[in-house]
């Protein structure tokens, strides 16, 4: 008996291991059989929207679509959403797409593979042709016979991929940035209800908060901030400072100065980090960020929101996506108001560089899902996108989220009225990250400068040193990337042309391919001109020459 | 017992034994060696990880390590050092030295050709500056007098040292400055980690000296339990600990009235502005506080694995040695210094190697806490994090492979130095 017990004891360990492995396998097979039976198509959808309510609303859309699909076809499908933290989303998507295991529907806009046209052309399915047809889910509505493309507020102009001459993602919403403020606290401190409409008003408000704190021994900060809020202020408050730079150096009149144009302008001596406009922009941002709560540099987006809800700050910057969330969270505690960021046109120093607020009329629709070209269920993915961007579903989704709808005729909730786009002012981008080193160094130093830890002049001279050392390499690298993109796109066009020659009905028409190939040649020519100019170190050409 | 060579007869008669390691070897090759070989190959390519794959020769290394004119003096001095060492050591060691010398000479020729092709005549400039002293030292090593020979060998090593210093000074201007900047943090962390190893050693000795076996067992179990806590949880706990507004560290400093002292020190001595009024230092967001925060990380620095490894070493010490030492009237401190410490040197060396490798490869902690740029002022940028940034954010996988390969060579050299200079007395 003892011998038997000893034997059992010696086999107990391996036995537990075998049983555990068997149980794990059984669970995997059971789950697979339950949730992924072979007859059920499973689609995955990934995004980085972790705002409260987004996942629930997407789940509801999925549920509605699954039911509808079953009623229409008699087949079951399983749509699974994968929310990923924004910080690791680029790596997740890049690895997934390159490795061929990415989800079927992918939110575009983060990670090189969803931004860089050469990757988009390779990894995503264009939706240009379906966009020209009416959206079947608009049947019975006023948009029933309107091509899908024209059902969007901007006719999808903002989502057009000009390099590839294609559309790849249909947006779900559009957004704008504003200041939210605690009306009760604001009234207590200032004695009135009018939010700041000019930069001088904003400065006056900062002074009043300081006086209030001194008088009452309080520790209220004017603005609740974090690096997330700072990036928003960099857009609303920082971008107008670059208006003159964009107007001066935009050689091909596309409304933005890209890396190549910025390099040529730099070589000509048109700008560097010591340019008065750029230094003034940093000083202005530093002045506003000095009104954030102490330790804001370490705070996350949620920490800043928590700080605002705890009434330790009077204001917070955020976007239209929080139009319902913030008032809901502050319900019963205080009343919330919204106002546009005042730009310092009236300021004696900054006013010289600012021509107006940031224009939002051209802001494209956001949260667009691209269809993975390797997905085995591209048709279903396309159909789901159509379903989500139909008038009824977009209205329901945006009212649920408190967001601004993108489909014409879809009613916006009252909460998003203050978020209507600003149609005056300036819009344009100036890409200063001429090399990865500039981007990395600048990204690391910018918060320190704006937090007042590093003087603006020190930042400028350090960044100028990096620029001087790496700008030329960066220029060469950008040209190389453009050449890669053009080469890859040409290969794709060659494939499409061959398919159209051999009467593949799904292939784009020969005329369309030729149009796109011509545009690509123009791109190639432009880069050749830039390469010559960059190599020769000759002065910037007249805009007409480049055109 | 001397190991016998494996004969064909042995394989045939005990083939089942030889079959057993095959799955392990196959998996190790599949998941470790083949990717490593792929990384070495791709370091010579411009590769975006997807479809752009273009052979670029040494371009990635030139971008990372600077122009060949910087490398040639170091390689030349290394070659001379190999030649000088040829007169010493066993036959096997001499064969290895000859092979290494040939590899270095080939590298020099390849570099020279590469520089010549790319029209870089200055590549050979360093040869004259460093070649002449090396030649003179080499001639001296062949002289009849022992003093002249030792001066010659000394001259070669001194030139090697100067060449290395010259390289490390100049590479920041001509190579990838960010990569070399990232080593600053690594060296600070390695020095700090050398001190942070001691609490684990002391803890292991304390447990080992417990009289009761039961108590010893209990402590061992207590040290194993934290191992089941996921690293991510520990990371979040520490992140909360450092939180400027609600974190316990600032509360603790305030409760101990150290806030006044730190604020005074900052305003009078350091002048970083990190400890302003109100006292809410952002430990992971102030450039001047990031490095101290990373050093303080994990306080009281009692590593679970480290303690268990030291304990295993301590348990191997025979009781007779203790008895003999006690008869000699050894104190508790003497027991530690003259008995336990020398006898667990194998374990200390192992932990040292693991620590150096771990510190050089570190990037996860910095990525999650500070972001891919290494936080404000890039103060938390490590070579591993830079490699990650270049690969996964910039899609330059070929260049990231070159960084990885360079990092591998540096770690290998440090491990060899560690192995050679930290002697274990049995």
Please name the defining characteristics of this protein:
heterodimer, A: 547 residues, D-Maltodextrin-Binding Protein, domain 2, 6-stranded mixed β-sheet, 4-stranded mixed β-sheet, 19 helices, 50% helix, globular, disordered C terminus, B: 426 residues, mainly alpha, MetI-like fold, 2 domains, two-stranded antiparallel sheet, 2 strands, 73% helix
Give the SSE layout.
The complex is a heterodimer of chains A (547) and B (426).
Chain A: H1 2-35, E1 41-47, H2 54-73, E2 77-83, H3 89-99, E3 105-107, H4 117-123, E4 124-125, H5 128-131, E5 160-161, E6 166-167, E7 169-170, E8 173-174, E9 177-182, H6 183-190, H7 199-216, E10 221-224, H8 227-238, H9 243-249, E11 256-257, H10 259-267, H11 276-289, H12 301-309, E12 313-319, H13 325-329, E13 336-339, E14 369-372, H14 378-388, H15 391-401, E15 404-405, E16 429-430, H16 436-450, H17 456-501, H18 510-536, H19 543-546
Parallel strand pairs in A: 1-2, 1-3, 10-12, 11-16
Antiparallel strand pairs in A: 3-14, 4-14, 5-6, 7-14, 8-15, 9-12, 9-13
Helix pairs in contact in A: 2-15, 4-17, 8-11, 10-18, 16-17, 17-18
Chain B: H1 8-13, H2 15-19, H3 21-42, E1 45-47, E2 53-55, H4 59-65, H5 68-85, H6 91-117, H7 125-141, H8 146-174, H9 177-196, H10 198-208, H11 213-224, H12 231-242, H13 248-255, H14 258-270, H15 287-296, H16 304-315, H17 319-327, H18 332-343, H19 345-361, H20 364-370, H21 383-393, H22 397-421
Helix pairs in contact in B: 5-6, 5-7, 5-8, 7-8, 8-9, 9-19, 10-16, 16-19, 19-22, 21-22
Helicity level of chain B:
over 70%
Biggest chain pair contact, residues each? A-B, 41 and 46 residues
Number of strands of chain A: 16
For the largest beta-sheet of chain B, the strand count, sense and barrel status come to: 2 strands, antiparallel
| Global outline of chain A | globular
Termini separation of chain B comes to 18 Å
Which strands sit side by side, in order, in the main sheet of chain B? 1-2
Give the DSSP E fraction of chain A (strand runs of 2 or more residues).
5-15%
Number of helices of chain B: 22
Portion in helices of chain A: 40-55%
Element string of chain B (H = helix, E = strand)? HHHEEHHHHHHHHHHHHHHHHHHH
**Mean pLDDT of chain A, rounded to whole units?**
84
Low-pLDDT stretches of chain B are: none
Query: Any idea what the CATH superfamily of the largest domain in chain B is called?
Result: MetI-like
- Can you identify the CATH class of the largest domain in chain A? Alpha Beta
The best one-word shape of chain B is globular
């Amino acid at each position: 008996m003892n011998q038997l017990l000893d034997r059992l004891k010696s086999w107990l360990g391996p036995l537990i291991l075998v049983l555990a492995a068997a149980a794990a396998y059984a669970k995997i097979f059971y789950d697979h059989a339950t949730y992924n039976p072979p007859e059920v198509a499973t689609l995955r959808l990934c995004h980085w929207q972790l705002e409260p309510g987004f996942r629930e609303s997407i789940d509801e859309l999925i549920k509605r679509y699954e039911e509808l699909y079953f009623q229409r076809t008699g087949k079951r499908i399983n749509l699974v959403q994968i929310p990923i933290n924004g910080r690791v989303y680029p790596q997740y998507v890049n690895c997934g797409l390159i490795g061929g295991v990415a989800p079927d529907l992918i939110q575009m806009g983060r990670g090189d593979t969803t931004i860089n046209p050469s990757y988009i052309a390779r990894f995503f399915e264009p939706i240009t042709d379906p966009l020209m047809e009416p959206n079947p889910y608009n049947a019975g509505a006023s948009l029933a016979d309107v091509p899908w493309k024209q059902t969007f507020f901007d006719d999808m102009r903002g989502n057009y991929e000009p390099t590839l001459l294609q559309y790849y993602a249909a947006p779900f919403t559009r957004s704008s940035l504003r200041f939210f403020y605690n009306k009760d606290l604001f009234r207590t401190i200032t004695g009135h209800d009018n939010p700041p409409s000019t930069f001088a008003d904003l400065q006056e408000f900062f002074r009043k908060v300081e006086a209030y704190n001194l008088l009452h021994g309080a520790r209220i900060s004017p603005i609740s901030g974090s690096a997330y809020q700072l990036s928003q202020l960099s857009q609303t408050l920082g971008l107008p400072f670059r208006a003159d730079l964009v107007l001066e150096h935009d050689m091909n009149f596309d409304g933005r100065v890209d890396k190549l144009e910025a390099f040529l302008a730099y070589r000509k001596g048109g700008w560097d980090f010591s340019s008065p406009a750029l230094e003034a922009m940093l000083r202005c941002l530093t002045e506003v960020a000095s009104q954030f709560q102490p330790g804001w540099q370490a705070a996350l987006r949620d920490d800043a929101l928590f700080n605002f809800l705890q009434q330790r700050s009077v204001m917070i910057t955020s976007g239209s996506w929080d139009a319902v969330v913030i008032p809901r969270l502050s319900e019963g505690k205080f009343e919330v108001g919204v106002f546009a960021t005042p730009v310092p046109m009236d300021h004696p120093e900054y006013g010289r560089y600012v021509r107006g607020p940031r224009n939002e009329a051209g802001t494209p629709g956001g949260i667009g899902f691209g269809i993975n070209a390797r997905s085995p269920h591209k048709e279903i993915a396309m159909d789901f996108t159509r379903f989500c961007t139909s008038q009824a579903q977009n209205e329901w989704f945006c009212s649920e989220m408190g967001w601004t709808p993108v489909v014409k005729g879809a009613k916006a909730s009252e909460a998003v009225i203050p978020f209507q786009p600003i149609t005056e002012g300036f819009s344009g981008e100036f890409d200063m990250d001429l090399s990865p080193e500039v981007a990395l160094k600048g990204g690391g130093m910018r918060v320190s400068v704006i937090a007042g830890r590093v003087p603006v002049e020190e930042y400028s001279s350090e960044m100028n040193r990096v620029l001087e050392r790496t700008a030329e390499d960066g220029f060469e690298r950008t040209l190389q990337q453009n050449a890669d993109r053009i080469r890859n796109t040409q290969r794709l066009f060659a494939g499409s042309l061959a398919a159209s020659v051999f009467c593949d009905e799904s292939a784009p028409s020969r005329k369309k391919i030729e149009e796109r190939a011509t545009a690509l040649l123009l791109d190639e020519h432009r880069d050749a001109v830039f390469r010559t100019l960059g190599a020769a170190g000759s002065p910037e050409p007249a805009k007409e020459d480049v055109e | 017992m001397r190991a016998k060579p494996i004969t064909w007869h042995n394989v045939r008669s005990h083939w089942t034994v030889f079959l057993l390691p095959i799955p392990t070897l196959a998996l190790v090759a599949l998941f470790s060696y083949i990717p490593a070989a792929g990384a070495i190959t791709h370091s010579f390519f411009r590769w975006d990880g997807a479809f752009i794959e273009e052979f670029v020769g040494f371009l990635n290394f030139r971008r990372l390590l600077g122009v060949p004119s910087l490398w040639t003096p170091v390689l030349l001095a290394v070659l001379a050092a190999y030649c000088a060492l040829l007169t010493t050591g066993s036959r096997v060691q001499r064969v290895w030295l000859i092979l290494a010398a040939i590899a270095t000479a080939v590298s020099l020729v390849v570099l020279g050709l590469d520089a010549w092709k790319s029209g870089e005549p200055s590549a050979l400039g360093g040869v004259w500056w460093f070649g002449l002293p090396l030649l003179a030292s080499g001639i001296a090593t062949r002289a009849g007098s022992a003093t002249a020979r030792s001066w010659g060998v000394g001259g070669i090593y001194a030139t090697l040292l100067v060449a290395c210093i010259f390289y490390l000074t100049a590479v920041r201007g001509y190579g990838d400055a960010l990569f070399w900047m990232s080593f600053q943090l690594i060296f600070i962390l390695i020095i700090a980690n050398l001190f942070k190893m001691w609490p684990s050693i002391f803890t292991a000795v304390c447990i080992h000296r417990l009289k009761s076996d039961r108590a010893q067992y209990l402590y061992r179990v207590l040290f194993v339990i934290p191992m089941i806590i996921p690293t991510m949880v520990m990371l979040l706990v520490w992140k909360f600990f450092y939180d400027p507004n609600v974190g316990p560290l600032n509360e603790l400093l305030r409760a101990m009235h150290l806030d006044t002292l730190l604020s005074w020190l900052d305003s009078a001595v350091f002048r970083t502005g990190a400890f302003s009024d109100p006292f809410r230092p952002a430990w992971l967001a102030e450039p001047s506080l990031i490095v101290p925060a990373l050093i303080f990380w994990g306080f009281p620095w009692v590593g679970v694995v480290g303690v268990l490894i030291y304990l295993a070493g301590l348990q191997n010490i025979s009781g007779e040695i203790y008895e003999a030492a006690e008869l000699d009237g050894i104190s508790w401190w003497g027991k530690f210094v003259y008995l336990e410490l020398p006898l667990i040197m194998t374990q200390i060396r192992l932990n040292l190697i693991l620590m150096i490798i771990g510190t050089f490869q570190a990037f996860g902690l910095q990525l999650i806490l500070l972001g891919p740029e290494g936080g404000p002022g890039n103060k938390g940028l490590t070579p591993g994090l830079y490699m990650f940034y270049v690969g996964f954010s910039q899609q330059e996988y070929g260049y990231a492979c070159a960084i990885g390969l360079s990092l591998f060579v540096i770690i290998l050299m440090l491990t060899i130095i560690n192995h050679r200079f930290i002697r274990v007395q049995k």
